[in-house]
From TrEMBL:
It is found in: Cytoplasm. Substrate binds at D121, D168, H252. Keywords: Cytoplasm, Lipid biosynthesis, Lipid metabolism, Metal-binding, NAD, NADP, Oxidoreductase, Phospholipid biosynthesis, Phospholipid metabolism, Zinc. GO terms for cellular component: cytoplasm. Zn(2+) binds at D168, H248, H264. SUPFAM superfamilies: Dehydroquinate synthase-like. Its EC number is 1.1.1.261. This is Glycerol-1-phosphate dehydrogenase [NAD(P)+]. It is an enzyme of class 1 (oxidoreductase). The lineage of its organism: Archaea, Methanobacteriati, Methanobacteriota, Stenosarchaea group, Halobacteria. Glycerol binds at D121, D168, H248, H264. It comes from the Archaea. NAD(+) binds at G94, K95, P96, I97, D98, T116, A117, A118, S119, S125. GO terms for molecular function: glycerol-1-phosphate dehydrogenase [NAD(P)+] activity; metal ion binding.
Length: 348
């Protein structure tokens, strides 16, 4: 087996647009894969487009993923082995897509990504992010051979899924700042291209924020392109560093402390406001991040996220424990400092 950790692995076919789902069969045929696919999805995407996807693929089988987790990845591996799947299709939001890409990696079979929501930037990346007990693992996973994103389906998805994707991209500002800090203080390896692409993607999204409105297919198109770009940045870097810093540590910790209250993207957006403040102080980028999230109707407060002041402060003070990734949180901040940043930025 080759060591692929230094390879930049990117999709061959990225099909984005109105009715793109009708091209799924053709986009897959063009990959010269053999055998039948296992489709990994969750309840809503399966209801909405499951039949349309199945009708274009040879003798598919389907697994519905209830929750993210390694047990679900194992279920998918077992199902794929028992049908001798030729490749795996991830259909839906981040949960089924990450599960599918991790199972594909384990089995060494091709992976095709079919997002039904513009809710996260894992739709193109070769990274999987899965919770396990008190930690979250960000692991190398099979990057998609093809991505098929139908803007008609995505524009019809609940608006908050799109605003979550926007916030996930806006958080690249603080993720890159954390990565640069880790390079300066800890000698962490840094990719100029990965960092520049992630930051530029956030800037372009913020510049186009006025065009991103509910129900508009053009908005879905702008956000999906940005998510693709952010995923490519992660592939170039060979890690999630360009798109995941302290704001993601905060969000992952909130998933443990207050599970299921808010979407991933919304949590990282609020985290980004606070970690921007920690980077630059009162006059820095936190106000721009706050204004951009506000203009997109994305959450900016603990209340918007449905978490209490105590839960938010708990997550911020313990976020550094989630994984060994140096950020502006260093080896942890005090409750007094956490309260000050949350109050000054209006998060609590
Ligand atoms: N690997 C990576 O680089 C990255 C991974 N992630 C991971 O992705 C996950 C978050 O992704 P997210 O998409 O929020 O999670 P989910 O897959 O849980 O999707 C969120 C919700 O959207 C619903 N949904 C999806 N598509 C539609 C649609 N078209 N219409 C109506 N509802 C729809 C799902 O419904 P239902 O459950 O009923 O099916 C679910 O309730 C996290 O686990 C995160 O860590 C995030 C960023 C990057
Ligand atoms: O959510 C991600 C990038 O937006 C993935 O990052 P993690 O490695 O922190 O899970
Ligand atoms: Zn994210």
């Amino acid at each position: 087996m080759f060591d692929k950790s230094t390879w930049i692995r990117l999709p061959r076919n990225v099909v984005v647009g109105h009715g793109a789902l009708d091209d799924l069969g053709a986009a897959v045929d063009e990959l010269y894969l053999s055998g039948s696919p296992l489709i990994v999805t969750s309840p809503s995407p399966d209801d909405i487009v499951g039949d349309q996807v199945r009708s274009q693929l040879p003798s598919p089988e389907t697994v519905i993923v209830a929750e993210a987790g390694f047990d679900q990845v194992q279920n998918v591996i077992d199902a794929a082995q028992s049908m001798d799947a030729g490749y795996i299709v991830g259909l839906g939001g981040g949960k089924p897509i990450d599960t599918a890409k991790m199972a594909s990696d384990e089995l060494d079979v091709g992976f095709v990504s079919v997002p039904t929501a513009a809710s996260h930037d894992g739709i193109v990346s070769g990274r999987g992010s899965i919770p396990e007990g008190d930690t979250r693992h960000s692991v190398a996973a099979e990057p998609p051979l093809a991505v098929v994103a139908d803007t008609e389906v995505i524009a019809d998805a609940p608006w908050e899924l799109t605003t979550a994707g926007c916030a996930d991209i806006i958080s690249n500002y603080t993720a890159v700042a954390d990565w640069q800090l880790a390079r300066r203080l800890k000698g962490v390896e840094y990719s100029e291209y990965g960092g520049a692409l992630a930051r530029m993607t956030a800037e372009m999204l913020v510049d186009n924020a006025d065009l991103i409105r509910p129900g508009l297919e053009e908005s879905a198109w702008i956000v999906v392109k940005a998510l693709v770009s952010s995923g490519v940045a992660m592939s170039i870097a060979g890690s999630s560093r360009p798109a995941s810093g302290a704001e993601h540590l905060f969000s992952h910790q909130l998933d443990r402390i207050a599970p299921g209250r808010a979407l991933h993207g919304h949590q990282v957006g609020v985290g980004s406001i606070m970690t921007a403040y920690l980077h630059d102080g009162p006059d820095g980028m936190w106000q721009n991040i706050h204004a951009a999230l506000d203009s997109l109707d994305a959450p900016t407060t603990a209340e918007d996220l449905g978490v209490t002041e105590g839960e938010l402060l708990d997550a911020l003070t313990s976020a550094h424990e989630i994984r060994d990734r140096y950020t502006v949180l260093g080896d942890g901040i005090t409750e007094k400092a956490a309260r000050e940043v949350a109050e000054t930025t209006g998060v609590i």
